[in-house]
Amino acid sequence: MDFKFEVNEGPVDRAVRVVLGAVLALAAYMKFVSPPLDLLFYLLAIVLVITGAIGFCAIYKVFGINTNPKKN
Q: How many domains does the chain have?
């Protein structure tokens, strides 16, 4: 199985991920959620921001999803 890190997220998908990641991190930081849940929010925020920044989602790759208009 050939597993390359090609961009498989479109620009809108990437922007939504970064914004949602920032919102989750801010919600955890501002204590809008209780302590066990804030760690989950931080973790999800990190994953969303990183995948949005690099443009690659491993889950998309597994399921054959590609929202990038410039198909690789």
A: 1
- Separation between Cα atoms, residue 5 and residue 2, nearest integer Å: 10
The Cα–Cα gap between 54 and 22 comes to: 16
End-to-end CA distance of the chain: 17
| DSSP letters spanning 29-46 | HTT-S-HHHHHHHHHHHH
- The three-state secondary structure class of 19 is helix
CA distance 1 to 13: 26
Domain assignment present for residue 40? The answer is yes
Whether residue 13 lies inside any domain: the answer is no
The model's pLDDT over 1-55, given as tens digits with 9 standing for 90+, comes to 566 688 999 999 999 999 999 999 999 999 999 999 999 999 999 999 999 999 9
